[in-house]
Amino acid sequence: MAASAIAAPAPVTGRWLTEGRKAIVEVSTCGDSICGRVVKVLDPRAPKNATDIHNPDESLRKRPIEGLRILSSFEAGKSHWNGRIYDPESGRTYRSELKREGNVLKVKGCWGPFCKTQRWTPAS
User: How far apart are CA 123 and CA 26, in angstroms?
Assistant: First the structure.
């Protein structure tokens, strides 16, 4: 039991300010996995009551960005959490990794072999 606790990644739950201060995302447990929702859009360029207009599923384009689940199905690996991230700016879902390093949450999204990492900071 103690060996598995040592091998588990650092907790990632909490409220996080996305890179570029575009939104606050609340990361929490969802059943047996970790998920995250946009709780507040901060981007001054975003329209008031912004919706998921870039979603490839036309029937989902009217759902509000605030409250939208963008992180889903994250499971603990040895050093990070593995799951999926949805980008409402592109309408794409990517393979993702979450890794906490001190006071920073590294959020990596990958499309095939290409990956990009953002650094999210705690939201106050």
Answer: 9
Cα(67)–Cα(77) distance, rounded to whole angstroms? 27
- Cα 123 from chain centre: 14
Label residue 7 left, alpha or beta by phi (over 0 means left) and psi (-120 to 50 means alpha).
alpha
In tens, the pLDDT along 61-100 reads 999 999 999 999 999 999 999 999 999 999 999 999 999 9
Q: What is the pTM of this model?
A: 0.90
Contact indicator for 36, 69 with CB cutoff of 8 Å: yes
| Secondary structure (DSSP) of 13-60 | -EEEEPGGG-EEEEEEEETTEEEEEEEEE--TTSPTT-B-TT-SSGGG
CA-to-CA distance for 105 and 42, rounded, in angstroms? 18
Element housing 86 (H / E): strand 81-87
